[in-house]
Design a protein that fits this description.
The protein is of the alpha/beta class and 500 residues long. It is 24% helix and 21% strand. It has 13 helices and 19 strands. It has a six-stranded mixed beta sheet with strand order 3-13-14-15-17-16. Strands 12-11-10-9-18-19 form a six-stranded mixed beta sheet. A hairpin with a 2-residue loop joins strand 16 and strand 17. Helix 2 runs parallel beside helix 4 and helix 3 packs across helix 4. The radius of gyration is 23 Å and the shape is globular. The structure holds fe (ii) ion. The site of fe (ii) ion has 7 residues, from loops.
Length: 500
């Protein structure tokens, strides 16, 4: 039987050690964003009870301000329980963007954002056997021996002897801990603003720092429910179209459109494709980098979206096309980004669903998290051994942190929303990104990782930054098995590429 939203919610609560009563589930299913509401329920659940009751759902619905509801154009969620109990080919589970910031004081707004991040990720870490004697920072005493804390990383710096000094914050205080070099705990790179659990040895002597014995990340649970479609329907994953750029690959795009119409190679595969996902940078935008106007074929951003609409209309109208914005799109660049404004959405065909960046949705019951990937610009310089040629390595780390863009104050602007919409929850079956203009696929703890390819050739700017794109590849995924077929429309190889 095809997985439906009901099963997603039940397994979501199970993952978080909560039991949802039938009446509560029924009510949750009537909500526009059931998963977002479920998260709020878990956050506000009494610590001593594993149950989620109908009264708790009613209370959560009352608590939520109407302005916090996302209003992305084209949002398709199922409103009636009868509908959702049947299998649904497409359902939005949650968008990262939950409305404009509500606090007028930026400091208060960012505090709320980081508190939300801490609470959501700490919830995933609590109860781990490897985090014994878990204590709030304020309650730690010298001579405690072995204890654990969960903290958000405020600072990491090396001592003169190349040990690491890490400052962690929780909601009760701040703590400096030492990660001695050449220990197993020193093997992982600790990033600013990520949420970690650490097991500590606290020395008896006053003034000596607690030592980190082990580091635990929120992680994708190995025991999670694996979701698969009931039939071999497929989805195709694309990114970084950059329509409006002189380097948009229109010939390659035409080949893709012909293929999807069943007029190219492997028509039986084309006929099984129901969904298209585009992971951002739908158009090239304007003023994104110095002297971009020299690279533009269309210098008006509304016209760029009109052309995007024409390009998407070249694909079969039966397809469900899900698009999210990227850093080149005409929405606020701070993440999470909202979906396209109505004026731009109106330029796109009616079979296009415009969601925010990031967004989590189900395709034939398979949960997809789509994120453009701007945070590669921060994570790649911060994580030794990673590079733009293999963004899937960075995506593994995102899943391990259960966060798409933890680093604050660098190249990825973060919006101070009351809920951290960049937390990865639930763990998806497919995580798709773009931004790197390369192509990559890998797997991590049962999650299929896709860095979808671009449909833009190399620009002068990329040449300057030493980025060689791998363009016009399409990732075709069988939603019943998550098997991947890579199709190459670049014209440099036979169009029907290798499975991988
Ligand atoms: Fe791009």
């Amino acid at each position: 039987m095809t997985q439906d939203l009901r099963e997603h919610l039940v397994s979501y609560f199970e993952e978080h050690h909560a039991l949802v009563e039938a009446g509560a589930l029924q009510l949750l299913l009537t909500d526009r964003q059931p998963l977002l509401l479920s998260r709020s329920l878990l956050e506000n659940r009494p610590v001593d009870s594993p149950f989620v009751t109908r009264e708790m759902v009613e209370e959560a619905m009352r608590r939520r301000a109407p302005s916090a509801l996302p209003v992305a154009g084209g949002l398709r969620t199922v409103a009636r329980p009868d509908d959702v109990l049947a299998s649904v080919p497409y359902a939005v589970l949650c968008e990262g963007f939950t409305g404009p910031p509500v606090a007028s004081d930026p400091l208060a707004a960012y505090s709320a954002l980081f508190r939300s991040r801490y609470r959501e990720l700490a919830r995933m870490l609590r109860g781990r056997p490897d985090l014994g004697n878990l204590r709030p920072i304020r309650e730690l005493r010298s001579g405690e021996g072995s204890a654990s804390v969960i903290g958000i990383v405020r600072e990491v710096r090396a001592t003169q002897k190349q040990h690491l000094l890490v400052t962690l914050d929780d909601e009760t205080g701040s703590l400096s801990v030492l990660v001695p070099r050449d220990t197993s705990a020193a093997r992982t790179t600790i990033l600013g603003d990520e949420v970690l659990g650490v097991r500590l040895e606290i020395p008896r002597e006053r003034g000596r720092l607690p030592r980190v014995v082990a580091v635990e990340r929120p992680e994708v649970p190995v025991t999670r429910t694996v979701r698969r479609a009931a039939t071999h329907r497929r989805a195709i994953f694309l990114s970084d179209l950059h329509v409006g750029s002189r380097s948009f690959l229109s010939e390659e795009w035409s080949r893709l459109a012909e293929f999807l119409h069943g007029r190219g190679p492997m028509p039986e595969v084309a006929a099984s494709i129901d969904h298209v996902v585009v992971a951002g940078d739908l158009v090239d935008g304007i003023g994104i980098y110095p002297q971009q106007e020299r690279d533009l074929a269309i210098a008006d951003v509304v016209e760029q979206y009109a052309e995007l609409g024409r390009k998407l209309a070249e694909l079969p109208a039966r397809l469900n096309i899900v698009v999210i914005p990227g850093n080149h799109d005409a929405v606020c660049p701070a993440e999470p980004q909202p979906g396209l404004p109505e004026a731009l959405r109106a330029q796109l065909p009616p079979n296009v669903q415009s969601l925010g960046n990031p967004s989590t949705f189900a395709l034939e019951g398979v949960v997809v998290c789509a994120y453009h990937g701007r945070s590669f610009d921060d994570l790649i310089p911060a994580l030794p051994g990673t590079h733009y040629g293999r963004p899937t390595d960075v995506m593994k780390r995102m899943l391990s942190m259960r966060h798409l863009a933890p680093i604050y104050g660098d190249r990825t602007p973060l919006a101070p929303l009351p809920r951290d919409g960049l937390v990865i929850d639930p763990a998806p079956d497919i995580l798709v990104t773009g931004h790197a203009h390369t192509y990559g696929a890998d797997r991590y703890r049962g999650v299929l990782l896709l860095n979808a390819s671009t449909w833009q050739a190399e620009t002068e700017y990329q040449r300057m930054r030493n980025i060689t794109p791998v363009a016009a590849r399409a990732a075709v995924v069988d939603l019943a098995t998550l098997e991947l077929l890579t199709l190459d429309f670049s014209g440099t190889a036979p169009p029907a590429g290798a499975a991988g």
